[in-house]
Design a protein that fits this description.
The chain is built from eleven helices and ten strands. The chain has three domains: 3-99, Helix Hairpins; 103-227, NAD(P)-binding Rossmann-like Domain (Rossmann fold), CATH 3.40.50.720; 252-330, Regulator of K+ conductance, C-terminal domain (Alpha-Beta Plaits, 2-Layer Sandwich). α1 packs antiparallel against α3 and α7 (179-192) packs parallel to α8. The protein has helices spanning 3-28, 33-44, 57-101, 114-125, 137-146, 158-163, 179-192, 205-214, 222-235, 237-246, 320-330, and strands at 107-110, 130-134, 150-152, 171-174, 197-201, 218-220, 257-263, 287-292, 298-300, 313-319.
């Protein structure tokens, strides 16, 4: 019998005893309904309040049996309720562990603070798979409510990184509150997975340098980015407004405009074609802003005669639905 049915059985037994007790006091002692219900409840609850009226001998015998039955039923009910709660927690934890165990090529977010929240929200909007490492109990309640996968642990602990399947991840995002912890996690992640991409948060210039030395591929300073954004909003308001449109959430609608990076795969129909011979601009209404060649060089505003070599990365701007179509044509996931 599953725990929920046991809880229902315990509640039904308790309600049945209250009904029996109420009926018994009405029949044996001649009480009214309210007085009989009151007697049944205080007897089953063994709270020791005084009787409505002195009990007759048959009423006393009935009360003895009701108390015995009440103690047993209440104990059973409490036991089943506790078992149900514990079983539910264990079941949810095991289900989450199974879901984490199935992750591959995913993203690990270390810390669910203000930066981590924004990262997780954007990743979910794009349908990316990720797991969060967090140790704050209140934060974990929020993660449960949101349905996020998470590991209960300290990101500076190698075991927590391993439980988040660092060996199968493609990127780790380090957004812990302190620079020292971010440097430590970066060092640990780089040591455990030399080939993983690491994006780390820094609060100042010196910390950014230390994170790069520790092995971070990309260091982000929220304060620097925020200051730059404000300055651009003052000096180039129309550019900022346009970028706000481009950076709108992917789930707003298919009409949302985005900048996307898409790889040219070896077996796609565009491989080894000149840019002008594709339908990227004419039919999909997508502009190729730049091409990153396999050797890592960027070609900005590529010429129409530029060949799309397998392994190249196209930096494109267009509507989300059209970018998804292009991704399918290139043989990659959107």
């Amino acid at each position: 019998m599953i725990p929920s049915k046991k809880v229902v059985l315990a509640l039904s037994l308790l309600i049945g005893l209250v009904a029996i007790g109420t009926t018994g006091y009405m029949f044996i002692e001649g009480y009214g309904f309210i007085d009989a219900l009151y007697m049944a409840v205080i007897t089953l609850g063994t709270v020791g309040y005084r009787e409505v009226e002195p009990l007759s001998d048959p009423g006393k015998v009935f009360t003895i049996f009701l108390i015995i039955a009440g103690i047993g039923s209440v104990a059973y009910g409490v036991t089943q309720a506790v078992e149900y709660v514990i079983s539910t927690i264990v079941f949810q934890r095991r289900r989450m562990e199974r879901n984490i165990a199935r992750l591959s090529n995913h993203i690990i977010i270390c810390g669910y603070g203000r930066i981590g929240q924004q990262v997780a929200s954007r990743l979910r909007a794009r349908g990316a798979e990720f797991v969060i490492i967090e140790q704050d109990e209140q934060v974990m309640e929020t993660l449960d409510t949101l349905g996020y996968l998470y590991v209960n642990g300290n990101a500076t602990d190698d075991n927590s990184l391993k439980r988040a399947r660092l060996d199968e991840a493609n990127t780790i995002v380090v957004t812990l509150p302190t620079n020292a912890d971010n440097v430590y996690v970066t060092l640990s992640a780089r040591n455990l997975r030399p080939d993983i991409r690491i994006v780390a948060r820094a609060s100042d210039g010196p910390s950014a340098t230390k994170l790069q030395q520790a092995g971070a591929d990309k260091v982000i300073s929220p304060y620097e980015i925020g200051g730059r954004y404000i300055a651009n909003a003052v000096l180039r308001p129309h550019v900022v407004n346009f970028m706000d449109v481009v950076n709108a959430s992917h789930d707003i609608a298919a009409r949302s405009m985005e900048i996307e990076e898409l790889e040219v795969t070896e077996h796609c129909s565009y491989a080894q074609q000149a840019l002008k011979d594709t339908n990227i601009r004419s039919e999909l209404n997508i502009i190729v802003l730049a091409i990153r060649t396999p050797d890592g060089e960027f070609e900005y505003n590529p010429a129409p005669t530029t060949l799309l070599v397998p392994g190249s990365m196209l930096i494109c701007i267009g509507y989300a639905s059209n970018l998804d179509r292009l991704a399918r044509l290139l043989g990659v996931s959107a």
